[in-house]
Amino acid sequence: MKDIRILVGSVYGGALMTARAIKQTLDTEGYSVQVLENPVLSDITSDTSPLLVCTSTTGQGEVPGNLLPFYVALREQLPQQPGRPFGIIVLGDSSYGDTFCGAGELMEEALYETAARKVGETLCIDALETQEPESEALPWVREWVAAVFV
Ligand SMILES: Cc1cc2nc3c(=O)[nH]c(=O)nc-3n(C[C@H](O)[C@H](O)[C@H](O)COP(=O)(O)O)c2cc1C
């Protein structure tokens, strides 16, 4: 089974809806996707499946509150995940300037510190450009899974 765990960070539900749309699509294509709405570190240390971060950005380039405990624990404990594939989808709003999609950068840095391996470029979805983040996320995720499960 091709397992994927999605780590969700969302304030108003956009990133959560995007993660659910990804699950709905991939589950019908032979993948087994788990959407983690309130992830904890043991969700990733208990297995080795590829990780997909699907988070929005809040505050001034910060990680949403539901993902923050995971992020803090990851940074503090740095459980080593050598070579583990991960991808990043981040929602933001380019009117925030320098902090645009900042939560994606924070998650990426933290995962790199665990020696995990990023697959694909970060997908940055700009709320100024689209009202339907899933319409950008689904084509991206198809390429991502193709690169992860080669
Ligand atoms: C209070 C607040 C702060 C935000 N700060 C940022 C930010 O620093 N950088 C950014 O790119 N987007 C920022 N955004 C935009 C959100 O990330 C964007 O609207 C996203 O689509 C929301 O997704 P969600 O519904 O999953 O929370 C902010 C939005 C709000 C309401």
TrEMBL record:
Entry superkingdom: Bacteria
Pfam families, sorted: Flavodoxin_1 (PF00258)
The entry's keywords: Flavoprotein, FMN
Keyword Flavoprotein assigned: yes
PROSITE patterns given in the database record: FLAVODOXIN_LIKE
Domain spans labelled Flavodoxin-like: 4-145
Keyword field contains Flavoprotein: yes
Protein name listed in UniProt: Flavodoxin
